[in-house]
Amino acid sequence: MKRILIAGANSYLGEQIASWLNALPERFQTHTLDTRDPAWPQFDFSGYDAIVLVAGIAHQKETPESAALYQAVNHRLAVDIAARAKAAGVLQFVFFSTMSVYGLTVGQVQGNTPPAPNTFYGQSKLAAEQDLALLADERFHVAVLRPPMIYGRGCKGNYPRLSALIQKLPAFPSVPNERSMLYIDCLCLFMARLLESGEGGLYFPQNQAFVSTDALARQIALAHGKHLWQPRGLG
Predict the structure, then answer these.
(1) Pairing with 178, which of 119, 136, 206, 214 sits 20 to 30 Å away (CA)?
(2) What is the chain's mean pLDDT, rounded?
(3) Where are the extended beta strands (E) located within the chain?
(4) pLDDT digit string, tens, across residues 164-210
């Protein structure tokens, strides 16, 4: 049995991953750490096989004043937790980064696509990745995940905003694009396998098929019993 600590109490990802792992009691034992508690630095990380860091800030309006906050939470907090975990003998550290490190608004990410974040969010996550790589060694494995938009029951962020918009509007433009997405249960299954392996590395969990925005809008409308008019040429 592996002892897993999820750093980021009351977060959507943390709760979903913990629920999935708790359904496998013969394989995992999970606990959570509230990193917003000022006393968290006194927490004893010893005895855990892996730390999963889901704490962070996102989906907030970016202003010149918020750059420091993004760096403090998404970058320096991550490195601080990882350093303490390594010193305590933890063997695996899993960091949730983001596809935003690429800064792309158009195009596909390939194996040789260089990171070029254009938001404070993406910049802070990439800075954390770079410093976490310095902590990794043969004994302390750092796994970095760069997921696309995550959706599922009770999710937060862009998906529920899109859903609310579609439920209100009588029409939604037909947009012939494709994007990667990640269903929460697919992510949880991936996490279970990653934690069992104890491996480090860079990972891109996502659904097998790309999703077009107009197809997604149509399915959301159908799920709410609504017919959606989707005119072409306005996307």
Answers:
(1) 119
(2) 92
(3) 2-7, 28-33, 50-53, 92-96, 141-145, 149-151, 181-183, 201-203
(4) 999 998 888 887 788 899 999 999 999 999 999 999 999 999 999 99
How many beta carbons lie within 10 A of that of residue 48, not counting itself? 22
Instruction: Find residue 5's DSSP bridge partners.
Output: 31, 51
User: What DSSP line would sit under 137-182, residue for residue?
Assistant: -SSSEEEEE---EEE-TT--SHHHHHHHHHHH-SB-------B-EE
Local confidence band at 233 (pLDDT 50, 70, 90 cut-offs): low
What sign results for the dihedral spanned by CA atoms 70, 75, 80, 85?
Answer: positive
**DSSP conformational letter for 36:** T
Going from the C-alpha of 227 to that of each of 163, 170, 214, the distances in angstroms are 14, 8, 13
Distance, in Å, from the CA atom of 43 to the CA atom of 166, rounded to the nearest integer, reads 44
In angstroms, rounded to a whole number, what is the distance separating the alpha carbons of residues 40 and 25? 26
- What are the structure tokens assigned to 50, written together? 């892996």
Q: Answer whether 0.85 is exceeded by the pTM.
A: yes
Instruction: Categorize the per-residue pLDDT at 96 as very low, low, confident or very high, splitting at 50, 70 and 90.
Output: very high
